[in-house]
Design goal:
With 86 residues, the protein is an alpha+beta fold. It has two helices and three strands. The chain has a domain of 43 residues.
């Protein structure tokens, strides 16, 4: 892929498999989903990106980018009630 190639990265929910803290999965209250029970921090680190369980202060996933830059989409879809942009 060339540096000038345009990549279509949607800003819609495209998640096909969730990541969860194993401890959280054993503690989910009856009637609550793993997604709603999760308390995750997700952010960039010096080597890549990390998913962290806030509830258990535990690593879920830490991806090493191996020095490579990756395209991303950091926009969001407009929601009803969003202020109009000038």
């Amino acid at each position: 892929m060339s540096r000038d190639e345009v990549i279509d990265i949607p800003n819609t929910k495209e998640i096909e498999a969730y990541m969860h803290c194993n401890r959280c999965l054993t503690e989910i209250p009856l009637g609550e989903s793993p997604e709603s029970y999760a308390r995750l921090s997700i952010g960039f680190t010096p080597i890549g990106i990390q998913v962290w369980c806030v509830r258990h202060d535990a690593n879920i996933l830490h991806v090493h980018f191996e020095g490579q830059r990756h395209p991303s989409n950091q926009t969001r879809q407009r929601q009803t009630g969003d202020p109009t942009l000038c």
